[in-house]
Amino acid sequence: MTPPAAPETWQPDTPETFIRDLWPHAQRAARRIQADPAVLLAQAALETGWGRSMMTRADGRPAYNLFGIKADGRWDGDTVGARTLEFRGGAMRQEQARFRAYGSPGESFDDYVAFLEASPRYRGALAAAGDPARFTAELQRAGYATDPDYAAKIMAIYRSGDYRRAVAAAQRTHLAAANP
């Protein structure tokens, strides 16, 4: 099974749909960094509220920034402005920021891996990619997010029984589609 044909309108209606539709992208990205695709999906689920809180462009189309990557001076692609919650001085505050925008979920996964690989500060996370708990802890230590509980929140999703069952179902669905 593949994501919908018209990615400009993709909006998952359940966590199971989110996982099923993104599974092939997560697998491809995870292979590149030798990570568990389920931990990448857990991070994307946290960042987007299971796809229900994706950033949108001015015309209402999704920006597909599944990993909350901000657009800094190194980014020359499309961007969107969005409100974000940041922890500053131990307190959570709303801020306005520019974020990277993509044409599809697959582009978001591809850029996520490229983003990690291009920055020396994520070397520790990439070195720990085979261990989901260490990987997320290293992302947090490197400053991927300002939330002091970022890694714990990803791992809570990753370890959830419902999540693990939905991942297993997605694996079976995609395996069956690949081997008719």
Any overview of this molecule?
With 180 residues, the protein is mainly alpha-helical. It has a domain at 7-53 and 104-178: Orthogonal Bundle (Lysozyme). 49% of the residues lie in helices and 11% in strands. It contains seven helices and two strands; from the N terminus they run H-H-E-E-H-H-H-H-H. The protein has helices at residues 15-33, 37-48, 105-118, 123-127, 132-141, 150-159, 161-178, and strands spanning 79-88, 91-100. The chain has a two-stranded antiparallel sheet with strand order 1-2. The protein is globular, with a radius of gyration of 16 Å. The relative contact order is 0.17.
What descriptive keywords fit this protein?
mainly alpha; single chain; disordered N terminus; 49% helix; 180 residues; Lysozyme
Short description:
This protein is mainly alpha-helical.
Q: How many β strands by DSSP?
A: 2
The spatial strand order of the largest sheet comes to 1-2
Distance between the termini: 11 Å
Q: Tell me the structural class.
A: mainly alpha
> Any idea what the CATH architecture of the domain at 7-53 and 104-178 is?
Orthogonal Bundle
Poorly predicted runs: 1-6
Overall average residue pLDDT: 90
In N-to-C order, the SSE pattern is HHEEHHHHH
Q: How much helix, percentage-wise, in residues?
A: 40-55%
**CATH overall fold name of the domain at 7-53 and 104-178:** Lysozyme
Would you spell out the secondary-structure blueprint of this structure?
Layout (H helix, E strand, L loop, with lengths): L14 H19 L3 H12 L30 E10 L2 E10 L4 H14 L4 H5 L4 H10 L8 H10 L1 H18 L2
Antiparallel strand pairs: 1-2
